[in-house]
């Protein structure tokens, strides 16, 4: 028997995966909110040994991590034997960037004989395609700003930092950090007009060498509205390496706001 398990975090991606794969085992973590309706088997991250046993007993050989999972607080006094065995590797990784931590998490699951797969491998049409997806053709300045934003993210990749940046008229107005996309766009929205010479663009792209199975960047309708409030002309994403969540709602938001969405090889 071979079965898929969906590790459900926040947002609509786990919901879409559960709808597309109704026979999958739904797993949640204590302290991590999700929007999945229906039965979800909840486990403690402090007792990973118990989680591994549960997955194996139910024939799980593949697992997809979907949605925001955060970094739940850990109390070593509650660790089971399985967690105690991996704690010397896991605890130091919690002090590093997301990419380093998630690579270790993948390795731990695969050591248990459970292959980690990406949501984009399970949902057709999830990723942004190359070319103009919605809205007006971007200006030459917008394309130049997108290239500058890509250069900024590429330079930051070795530091395991940043999946997004806003550039306007060649000037960087903000970089995505641990606080996420919403915080970045809110910060940009507060930029004084005197510092802006053009609307600019918001670019979303994975870090260099990022494992897209567990941490593929994503945009959705809320991203579009936040970008519009930030005053940018449009959004540029890395083609085939960024997910468009709730695609119909995202396209409707783009039409409503007048922003463009462009997929580009980055």
From TrEMBL:
Positions of the LpxI C-terminal domain: 130-261
Pfam families according to UniProt: LpxI_C, LpxI_N
Every LpxI N-terminal domain range: 3-126
InterPro entries: LpxI (IPR053174), LpxI_C (IPR010415), LpxI_C_sf (IPR043167), LpxI_N (IPR041255)
Name the record gives this protein: UDP-2,3-diacylglucosamine pyrophosphatase LpxI
């Amino acid at each position: 028997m071979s079965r898929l398990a969906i590790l459900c975090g926040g947002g609509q991606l786990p919901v879409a995966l559960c709808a597309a794969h109704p026979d999958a085992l739904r797993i949640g973590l204590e302290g991590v909110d999700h929007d999945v309706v229906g039965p979800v088997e909840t486990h403690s991250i402090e007792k990973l040994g118990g989680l591994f046993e549960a997955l194996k007993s139910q024939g799980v050989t593949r697992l997809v991590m979907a949605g925001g999972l955060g970094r739940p607080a850990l109390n070593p006094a509650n660790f089971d034997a399985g967690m105690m065995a991996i704690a010397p590797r896991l605890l130091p990784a919690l002090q590093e960037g997301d990419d380093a931590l998630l690579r270790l998490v993948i390795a731990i699951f695969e050591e248990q004989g459970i292959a980690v797969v990406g949501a984009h491998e399970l949902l057709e049409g999830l990723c942004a395609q190359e070319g103009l997806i919605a809205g007006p053709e971007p200006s030459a300045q917008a394309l130049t700003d997108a290239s500058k934003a890509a250069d900024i993210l590429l330079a930051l990749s070795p530091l395991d930092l940043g999946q997004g940046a806003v550039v306007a008229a060649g000037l960087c107005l903000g970089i995505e950090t641990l606080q996420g996309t919403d915080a970045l766009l809110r910060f940009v929205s507060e930029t004084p007009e005197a510092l802006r010479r053009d609307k600019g663009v918001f670019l979303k792209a994975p870090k260099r060498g990022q494992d897209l199975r567990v941490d593929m960047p994503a945009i959705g309708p809320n991203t579009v509205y936040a970008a519009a409030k930030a005053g940018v002309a449009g959004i540029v994403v890395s083609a085939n390496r960024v997910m468009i969540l709730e695609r119909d709602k995202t396209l409707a938001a783009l039409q409503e706001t007048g922003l463009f969405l462009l997929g580009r090889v980055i």
